[in-house]
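Let's practice the habit of predicting before peeking. Look at the sequence and jot down your guess about where helices and strands might fall. Then scroll down.
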Amino acid sequence: MKMHITDRTALGGVEALVRCIARNDAEGVDLIQIREKDLSARELCALVGRALTVCRTTKVLVNTRVDVALACGAHGAHLPSDSPTPREWRRIAPEGFLIGVSCHSIDELRQAEAEGADYAVFGPVFKPLSKVDVRQPQGIAVLRAACAEVRMPVYALGGITKENAEQCMEAGAAGVAGITLFQP
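Done guessing? Here is the structure:
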């Protein structure tokens, strides 16, 4: 399983991002997480709408903005670890709406699962390639322990490359997530 987390700035704008999303859909990426936190609700809705138009098989998730995800008919939302719980959002979300959570510790993973998350993104596993992160990379051993603690799918995040993605899968990750891996 593969999750592309978007960064339109790194690609040079919305048009380049939409082309990248379409290419990743064609190449079999499972999830696109629209993570464009600086866009207004209107601009984000427009981008999500375009992503939904170009994706034939890939599910489109919206980072943080559950309201936008619901309004646009996205397949789900991805929450920061300090958000209202997935269980709270399920009260207003349609059946089948995916809700994922960012987790940075095994305790956060357990909590996200207990609160009804469908999946978690766990990291950083390695040193991130696309941003500066003050958190220390956790490594494969911690990823392995984290994946063994929960039943929900866990996506490895942080410094994921084609060369180390297989290590993450062997450690028990259901998939890999990233920006740089999917935005060459």
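How did you do? The longest helix spans residues 41-54.
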